[in-house]
Amino acid sequence: MAGPTLRDVAKRANVSIRTVSNVVNGYAPVSEELRARVQAALDELDYRPNLIARNLKQGRTGMIALVVPELDVPYFAELAREVITAARARGYVVMIDQTDGDGERERELLGRDSRATMFDGLLLSPLTVSAEELRARGNRVPIVLLGEHIFNGSFHHVAIDNVAAAREATGHLLGLGRRRVAAIGDQPYATGETAQLRTAGYRQAHARAGVEVDERLIVPTPHFHRRLGAEAMESLLALPEPPDAVFCYNDLLALGAIRALIRAGRRVPDDVAVVGVDDIEEGQYSTPSLTTIAPDKGEIARQAVNTLLATINGEATAPAEIVVPHRLIVRESTGGS
Amino acid sequence: MAGPTLRDVAKRANVSIRTVSNVVNGYAPVSEELRARVQAALDELDYRPNLIARNLKQGRTGMIALVVPELDVPYFAELAREVITAARARGYVVMIDQTDGDGERERELLGRDSRATMFDGLLLSPLTVSAEELRARGNRVPIVLLGEHIFNGSFHHVAIDNVAAAREATGHLLGLGRRRVAAIGDQPYATGETAQLRTAGYRQAHARAGVEVDERLIVPTPHFHRRLGAEAMESLLALPEPPDAVFCYNDLLALGAIRALIRAGRRVPDDVAVVGVDDIEEGQYSTPSLTTIAPDKGEIARQAVNTLLATINGEATAPAEIVVPHRLIVRESTGGS
DNA sequence: TGAGAGCTCTGCAACGATGCAGACATCATG
DNA sequence: CATGATGTCTGCATCGTTGCAGAGCTCTCA
């Protein structure tokens, strides 16, 4: 199983190990004749450098890890794709792990036996671990946080402006003349910071439009999955005065809500207009297609990777909140095309 | 940036490096008193083992790589999730890379400078690389293939019985009384082996039902994406005698086709019934929900990981075709619920 | 001709960990 | 008391690579 080493090649070509290494890496000048001889030996033995040894010597692996709650949530899958692409452009590969939103799993990462030391850096999209914990665990590996708003000056953090995004989404619905706009996805507890920012934006939009918020229209959900969106929608439809529009905190909730609406015989957008967040590909092809807040995922990935690599390379900058642009895409679920 | 090493800890605790290593790993017996002293030093310095060094010494990394065409294709995302879970259960972590269906990228993996040597094994879902190439490149890393049918005795290969699956899907539509059943997704060229197997199953079902195949109803698509499904459906609707049912070679094609049907004012399943393959979560929540062939993804992942680890551990078995079960799930798009 | 410069090439040490063999002390046994 | 067994602990070599310093040779030019 173990392949040939520099030693084997050196022996075959009758040169020093060091010279073979030089040929492989093109470091030092090597005469044409010797180079040819070494190259022949390399080819004959089909030598492959042992990257682990190289990494040990050089103190870096060329790998970063991306840790997300769930890889089969389309938003994370699409983001992962962008991260892989951005990392490859910089010569890095990406290890992906998922935590299932399980705090234990997230904490494992910071533990003593974590494999985190195998990576040059970590991109982390934490659900339950707080920034304080992260800092306390004092992992020596550079970290950049994604999405969740737990910025407190300790880490770089890349995200869209969640308040503005929610304000625009809600404002769009109010601008259509809807007056009973529901919100699905609030998380009024410690680890639900992103959700809370969106609720704040939802309230701001109402305030600006001079419309009073009916607190019964704000439905919290512990996760952002289709099923919970459908259930939340069903409970909203059971209200004496059901909503005529819904702002869902992500696209999956929105798609679940739409499913529930159609099952209940409501028309979308005629009876109830729906907006989501994330712009997952599915929303372009659903029936009706989904109006959504589209974060620039490519930019999120590039910013995150660039910031992480800068930290890795010691071009340290103070931890910062990096805001990435987003835009509202109007599709059929609110009357667009 | 560099953390403390065994040497640092040893110096602090006034013991040998070897003893610290023993404490860390619990290998050899160490007296209570010494253990406590070493442990204290470990804690004070917040020692983390350097996994790269450990890996170099032990000749394995505890990492496997999963290479898929596109991570944001739901099937692959869901499969990736299962693979990560299965690998974790066996103490392995998973590096994920995507090739974008680009032959170059796939071939890079086998090239001299590939990072493949950093992994104990490779799970590969190739689109364009043939088994011959794989074998010729003679990568020393154990490989298990996923999904594509390019088995030729050189590699382990995990997949469902594609012919049977397609036969069942098509048979289901014929069993509903449909007589003009289209097929979307054929790939009648060298690297489209899976698609060809499904086409074979499609023909078998027709033969068994005594229905003649109208060749114009078989629409090839170079990829399995929503957009191509929609376009294929549009071309089918433009036929003088459009189909009354469609078997799509994956769920994304099916969802695209449904989208096109609804836009064209056709009812699903009343006018046209639709079946897909993959059972991605989206199909449960789409409108209408999607009838599909559901491969047992968890089992695919477990079989693939187990086979790969067996190979890694030298429990070599002859390369084999490992068939994983699938089943037809009837939902609204063919009249189910 | 000899010193210096320049070009190739080499050996040694090191990255941080673990495998192995053995040193040393202690204890039980005949 | 000698012997061997047992239990702790240590030093050396090693994994496969690269950094560093320098060896040996050729060539130039005074």
TrEMBL record, chains A, B:
InterPro entries: HTH_LacI, LacI/GalR-like_sensor, Lambda_DNA-bd_dom_sf, Peripla_BP_I. The keyword Transcription regulation applies. Residues 4-58 form the HTH lacI-type domain. One of its GO terms (molecular function) is transcription cis-regulatory region binding. Keywords: DNA-binding, Transcription, Transcription regulation. It holds the Pfam family Peripla_BP_3. PANTHER family: LACI-RELATED TRANSCRIPTIONAL REPRESSOR, LACTOSE OPERON REPRESSOR. This is DNA-binding LacI/PurR family transcriptional regulator.
